[in-house]
């Protein structure tokens, strides 16, 4: 296989037209745009709030701070999960100040009002001092939509939004083979960043930056065009299939020795890499075969339900507007940016990694943050980007460009993006956003 060039490849079944709206800088920098998003975008989408693993017993709760909003998700007596705005109906104090916990009574820190897990007020000071009578049993926390998929809990502020599984289409079906239900969130890290949330969304909507920002991936992921397949769905989500366990065809890795780390991966699956000298591209098929034969015996029970493609490739699912799920056979990465409460030039970046529970395994090797114990939140922290705290080595590389891109976008000299074909998903993302925030075209 020689060096390949060519045009980007879009799935004929899942392609969408774009209009060519100019992607101007104001959407990354202006307070007005940010207000438009707070008003018209965020209240209508499903937000990933946490994982069901933290909600086992009645009264277990998790909190998700999103921009100016805060939501708590609480396990109920009947096993369901309900979500409430994290605000006290007495005089608006934020109720829960920690990330997670368990309590039979959610108690407000101001005047001590207490709520049961179903959000009903059950205890107040001076119950006879209310003109309407004792409010217990009558006053409730304000509830939001809350639904689950696999190991994940989602919430939505819009009572009229489509159900979660419909919003997630086509991913519940396309990801079913991985068996995500019982995967364990081992990494849960986040960072305050100095750029607009859309900067990293754009980054996840293209693979054009791989050779420049992530050059070390070249020996393991074939990001060559037209090898990579892009899919764009009508509902605004999109996906990218990248051929894995194969070096890129952008450069000539295919006529000599099998490059690292592919050689080690081959050896780990009982394949002698020297047999693939000069035909590195064929190794992928050999690894599929070896995984089929050896995987279940090594504890990878989910391999039996996975397609050949899922056994070796990378499936990047980008959900409109701000959630990315990157699947590889043994890792599910959640990558997300969320807006700052007030500053359009800031955001919060979140990175979770989930791993399948492999029988007998106590450790997961080779995560983006090194070898870690295979247990819930083995590595969890919040940091400020730039303080030298890693959020995963590939993510660090992506974030490294965010601040300088934000600075460049502030320039009067920037007049709008100039995109390649393979960046069409960025174009579509911004056109969808224009329609939501600015209204149907013509805009302005
Ligand atoms: S604001 Fe919560 S009890 Fe007063
Ligand atoms: Fe990247």
Molecular structure report:
The strands form 4 sheets. Strands 1, 12, 13, 14, 15, 16, 17, 18, 19 and 22 form a 10-stranded mixed sheet that branches. The chain has helices spanning 26-29, 31-41, 164-167, 171-174, 197-204, 210-213, 262-268, 283-294, 308-312, 393-409, 424-437, and strands spanning 9-10, 47-51, 60-66, 69-75, 81-85, 100-102, 106-107, 114-115, 121-123, 143-149, 152-156, 184-193, 221-222, 229-232, 238-244, 314-319, 323-328, 331-339, 347-355, 363-367, 370-373, 379-384. By secondary structure, the chain is an alpha+beta fold. The termini are far apart. Bound molecules: FE2/S2 (inorganic) cluster and fe (ii) ion. The site of fe (ii) ion has 5 residues, from loops. InterPro entries: Rieske_2Fe-2S, Rieske_2Fe-2S_sf, Ring_hydroxy_dOase_asu_C_dom, Rng_hydr_dOase-A. GO terms for molecular function: 2 iron, 2 sulfur cluster binding; dioxygenase activity; iron ion binding.
How many whole angstroms does the radius of gyration measure?
Answer: 24 Å
> From the coordinates shown, what is the CATH architecture of the largest domain?
Alpha-Beta Complex
Distance between the first and last residues' Cα: 50 Å
Number of strands: 22
Q: How does the major sheet shape up?
A: 10 strands, mixed
Mass-distribution shape: globular
Beta-strand residue percentage: 25-35%
Structural class determined from secondary elements: alpha+beta
Going by CATH, the homologous superfamily of the largest domain would be Naphthalene 1,2-dioxygenase Alpha Subunit, Chain A, domain 1
Number of helices: 11
Uncertain stretches: none
List the domain count as a whole number. Answer: 2
Portion of residues within helices: 10-25%
The name of the CATH topology of the largest domain is: Naphthalene 1,2-dioxygenase Alpha Subunit, Chain A, domain 1
Task: Quickly name the level 1 CATH class of the largest domain.
Answer: Alpha Beta
């Amino acid at each position: 296989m020689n060096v390949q060039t060519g045009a980007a490849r879009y799935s004929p079944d899942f392609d969408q037209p774009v209009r060519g709206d100019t992607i101007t800088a104001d959407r990354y920098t202006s307070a007005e745009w940010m207000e438009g998003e707070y008003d018209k975008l965020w209240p209508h989408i499903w937000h990933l709030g946490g994982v069901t693993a933290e909600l086992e017993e009645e009264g277990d709760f998790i909190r998700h701070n999103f921009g100016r909003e805060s939501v708590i998700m609480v396990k109920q007596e009947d096993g369901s999960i309900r979500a409430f705005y994290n605000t006290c109906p007495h005089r608006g104090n934020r109720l829960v100040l920690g990330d997670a916990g368990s309590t039979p009574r959610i108690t407000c820190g101001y005047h001590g009002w207490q709520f049961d897990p179903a959000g009903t007020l059950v205890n107040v000071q001076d119950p006879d001092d209310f003109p309407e009578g004792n409010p217990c049993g009558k006053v409730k926390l304000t509830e939001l939509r809350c639904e689950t998929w696999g190991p994940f809990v989602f919430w939505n502020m819009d009572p009229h939004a489509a159900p979660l599984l419909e919003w997630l289409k086509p991913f519940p079906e396309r990801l079913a083979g991985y068996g995500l239900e019982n995967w364990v969130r081992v990494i849960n890290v986040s960072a305050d960043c100095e750029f607009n949330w859309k900067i990293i969304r754009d980054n996840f909507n293209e693979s054009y930056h791989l050779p420049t920002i992530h050059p070390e991936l070249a020996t393991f992921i074939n990001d060559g065009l037209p090898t990579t397949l892009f899919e764009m769905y009508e509902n605004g989500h999109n996906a990218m299939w990248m051929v894995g366990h194969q070096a890129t065809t952008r450069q000539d890795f295919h006529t000599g020795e099998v490059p690292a780390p592919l050689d080690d991966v081959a050896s780990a699956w009982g394949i002698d890499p020297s047999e693939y000298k000069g035909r590195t591209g064929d190794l992928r098929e050999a690894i599929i075969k070896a995984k089929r034969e050896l995987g279940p015996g090594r504890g990878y029970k989910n391999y039996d339900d996975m397609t050949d493609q899922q056994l070796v490739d990378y499936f990047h699912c980008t959900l409109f507007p701000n959630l990315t799920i990157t699947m590889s056979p043994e890792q599910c990465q959640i990558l997300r940016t969320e807006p700052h409460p007030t500053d359009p030039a800031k955001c919060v970046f979140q990175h979770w990694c989930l791993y399948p529970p492999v029988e007998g395994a106590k450790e997961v090797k080779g995560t983006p943050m090194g070898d870690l114990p295979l247990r819930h939140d083995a590595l969890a922290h919040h940091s400020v980007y730039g303080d030298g705290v890693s959020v995963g080595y590939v993510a660090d590389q992506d974030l490294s460009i965010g601040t300088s891109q934000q600075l460049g976008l502030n320039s009067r000299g920037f007049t709008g993006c100039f995109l390649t074909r393979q960046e069409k998903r960025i174009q579509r993302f911004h056109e969808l956003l224009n329609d939501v925030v600015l209204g149907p075209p013509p805009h302005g």
